[in-house]
Amino acid sequence: MRRWLILSLSILSLTVTAWSAGSLSNRRAPGFSLSDLSLQQHDLYKYRGKVVILNVMKTDCSHCLSFSKNLSRVEEKYSRRIQVIDIVIPPDNQNSVQKYLVENGLSQLVLFDCGQVAASYLKITPQNPSFDTPHFFVIDQEGWIQDDYGYNALNDSIFKGEGLDKVIDKYLK
Q1: DSSP per-residue codes, the chain
Q2: Which of 29, 71, 80, 128 is buried most, with the most CB atoms less than 10 Å from its CB?
Q3: Residue 121: inside a domain, yes or no?
Q4: At what angle do helices 62-78 and 163-172 cross, to 10 degrees?
Q5: What is the CATH classification number for the domain harbouring 97?
Q6: Do the domain assignments include residue 96?
Q7: What are 11-60's pLDDT values in tens digits?
């Protein structure tokens, strides 16, 4: 009976742990150096010591827009303790990103990727060639991906509300 109880608790613990972190978590964040709108390079290593919210997005995605507004809110709230980084891939370009930021009153850091960085974070392979946006990663102060979230109806409060604050608070403690 005792062995059964210990085994059951162990399985439950593993299940809860796996459920709380996305399938792309619990690994070292792939390094990168990408350029922004002004062609300045940004290296992930530069942000060590901060919690980084790395968001793979598209400028024509409606959920990405509401999440961008939520990211602006948390970036202002947590100021120097976090870094929000948006990554876009083609067909997004400097014109579409500039228009997106201006039309929506946003001032986030947006970096341009040819697809390799997004592919390494999202583990894109020929067998798994697609992904949905937005998809964000929580990278801790030491450079490890602690959580990742793809948008769905169950986690809407993280993308559009104060649920994101709880995620960030967990890693700032």
Answers
A1: -HHHHHHHHHHHHHHHHHHHS-TT-SEEPPP-EEE-TT--EEEGGGGTTSEEEEEEE-TT-HHHHHHHHHHHHHHHHHGGGEEEEEEE-TT--HHHHHHHHHHTT---EEEE--SHHHHHHHT--SSS----S-EEEEE-TTSEEEEEEE--GGGHHHHHSTHHHHHHHHHH-
A2: 71
A3: yes
A4: 40
A5: 3.40.30.10
A6: yes
A7: 433 333 333 457 788 889 999 999 999 999 999 999 999 999 999 999 99
Question: pTM surpassing 0.70?
Answer: yes
- pLDDT for res 1: 54
Non-local (6+) Cβ contacts of 158 within 8 A are 149, 164, 167
What is the CA 77 to chain-centroid distance, rounded? 17
Q: Per the domain annotation, does 86 fall within a domain?
A: yes
How many C-beta atoms lie closer than 10 Å to residue 84's C-beta? Answer: 21
- Strand-pair category, 41-43 with 33-35: antiparallel
Q: Which residues contact 151 (CB under 8 A, 6 or more apart)?
A: 63, 67, 132, 133, 134, 135, 159
Residue 12 lies in a domain: no
Domain count, the chain: 1
Domain with 78, as residue range(s), is 25-172
